[in-house]
Automatic annotation (TrEMBL):
Name of the protein in question: Small nuclear ribonucleoprotein Sm D1
Function of the molecule: Plays a role in pre-mRNA splicing as a core component of the spliceosomal U1, U2, U4 and U5 small nuclear ribonucleoproteins (snRNPs), the building blocks of the spliceosome.
Location of the protein in the cell: Cytoplasm; Nucleus
Matching InterPro entries: LSm4/Sm_D1/D3 (IPR027141), LSM_dom_sf (IPR010920), Sm (IPR047575), Sm_D1 (IPR034102), Sm_dom_euk/arc (IPR001163)
A single GO BP: spliceosomal snRNP assembly
Keywords of the record: Cytoplasm, mRNA processing, mRNA splicing, Nucleus, Ribonucleoprotein, Spliceosome
GO molecular function, one term: RNA binding
Predominant place of localization: cytoplasm
Pfam family, one: LSM
Top-rank taxon, per record: Eukaryota
Protein's organism: Meloidogyne javanica (Root-knot nematode worm)
Length: 97
């Protein structure tokens, strides 16, 4: 993953703010962070070693300004060529009534 070990700030839908270094993200946008500082609305800041956040609870993610987004957003994996569709022989015959 290109953003591993980057420090991000995440705001959750309930207003909680979480800042930590990314350990991993899965296809459901679940995020796993380490060295976490979490501030729940109306409470004091907490520090945690690790935290996992369910993807559907995330409102937005603030990326660090130092990230070179121009290069990170480029898809560097080779594209697969679409397979050629082969027509069956009966589809080329004229329709007889």
């Amino acid at each position: 993953m290109k953003l591993s070990h980057e420090t991000v700030t995440i705001e959750l839908k309930n207003g909680t703010q979480v800042t930590g270094a990314i350990q991993g993200v899965d296809v459901a946008m679940n995020m796993h962070l380490r060295s976490v500082k979490m501030t729940i609305r109306g409470r004091e800041q907490m520090q945690l070693d690790t935290l996992s956040i369910r993807g559907n609870n995330i409102r937005y993610i603030q990326l660090p300004d130092s990230l070179p987004l121009d290069t990170l957003l480029v898809d560097d994996e080779p594209r697969k060529k679409p397979s050629q569709r082969q027509h069956s022989s009966h589809s080329l015959l004229p329709t007889v009534l």
